[in-house]
Specification:
The chain is an alpha+beta fold. It has three helices and four strands.
Length: about 110
């Protein structure tokens, strides 16, 4: 399993409705892609970067298949017209702690 984390800031004066339409289109493509597990989007409570969005995939190959789709590349290019300071990190499991530790209610 891998996580693909995007962080970015919005450009000043963007058309928020156009951004929202594009985000929905990208999310719909992701959700229907083979190997997709889940998606999280968060706003930074302290400032920059404004957004962190993380998608979880069964494997890097599954994410790569989506990323190579021409339609997804077109969406990604348009997405870059709304943001700055874009950073993308692909995370894999830790060899020391591959499974999450969770609180167990008693």
């Amino acid at each position: 399993m891998i996580e693909v984390a995007f962080t970015y800031d919005f450009l000043a004066g963007i058309d928020e409705n156009a951004y929202a339409r594009l985000a929905r289109k990208a999310t719909n493509m992701m959700v229907s892609a083979d190997g997709f597990i889940e998606f999280h989007a968060q706003r930074n409570m302290m400032g920059s970067p404004h957004v962190r969005r993380t998608s979880v995939w069964k494997s890097l190959a599954h994410y790569a298949a989506l990323a190579q789709e021409p339609e997804f590349q077109k969406i990604t290019a348009e997405f870059r017209t709304f943001v700055k300071n874009l950073d993308v990190v692909i995370w894999g499991p830790s060899p020391l702690l591959p499974d999450p530790i969770r609180h167990i209610e008693e």
